[in-house]
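Subject: Re: docking follow-up (pyridoxal-5'-phosphate)

Dear J.,

Thanks for your patience while I sorted out the input files. As discussed at Tuesday's group meeting, I've set up the holo structure prediction with pyridoxal-5'-phosphate included as the bound ligand rather than trying to dock it afterwards. The sequence and the ligand SMILES I used are pasted below, so you can double-check that they match what you have on your end before we go further.
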Amino acid sequence: MPHCPSWLQPLQRLLSAPMSHLALTPHADMLWLATADDVICGNKPWKLWGHLQQLTSPPVRLLSFGGPHSNHLHALAGCGRLLGIETMAVVRGYAECALTPTLQDCQQLGMRLVFADKKTYRQRHDSNYLAHLQQQYQAIVIPEGGGGEAGRLGCEALGCEALAPYVEGYDQVWLAVGTGTTAEGLAQALPASTELMAVNVVADQGELKRRWQQSMPGRWRLLEDFHGGGFGRISDALRQLIARYDAKGIALDPVYTAKMMQAFEACNEPGKRALLLHTGGLQGRRGAGLSLPSAG
Ligand SMILES: *Cc1c(COP(=O)(O)O)cnc(C)c1O
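The structure tokens for the complex came back this morning:
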């Protein structure tokens, strides 16, 4: 990877680890966006890579936003620990509530948690509020989910540098979509012949689709019937699917990758060669009462 200042090299090393894949069906394989680390894995460190690469010097403190099960905050806390940068989170919720396993990890990794009620949290995109946070905490502010243009650039690097050797020969690349940032980065990087099969896990009333119709390059499909009632909602059918894959030794997370598999099972086209991206998020299983898979 080009332009890597020395303070970012520990993260670069981690992201350079080879990924592993596994045959799911005769026509479909799964590719794990693995890194050389258990905590910092999946797509989130790539988005952070994009944000950190924009900085001319190592920041003293990074601040971001998330819910109590956030994969993004978890990865941010891990990256901060790895790089020796302080981290802070504005968490949607209340300090009186028991910490989720995710937030316990974040705290153990040294992240400072500040809780925000719904009304305050709603300001997370407001430029005045962001300027105020930046001032008050002397922090570089990263958007919720690691999104934005810098996050997209990080995911373009994921596509160009890490995925390129793996996507050759596939007709489709499948992934779960939240903010859409990862898919938008990959769309810039993947071969034009590859169709991006994006499974929306957010019930967003067509908002992302409208945005993509304006600006998304390449061949893509946005599957919108698999959010299962909304972001983070876990139905019995989804739990059964997770258990079915657990039994095959394939651990899925309930928020993203399990919904991607649900969509794949319903919509895959026989004869098309498909690569399914496992974008991580396994830490979030604990918040849904699911055990973590044993390492390996
Ligand atoms: C955040 C996340 C996604 C979605 O990424 P976006 O860039 O927000 O679309 C997919 N899978 C997992 C496991 C995630 O944590």
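A couple of observations from a first look. Residues 42-44, 71, 145, 176-183, 253, 256-257, 279-281 surround pyridoxal-5'-phosphate (CB under 6 Å). The chain has eleven helices and ten strands.

Let me know if you'd like me to rerun anything.

Best regards,
T.
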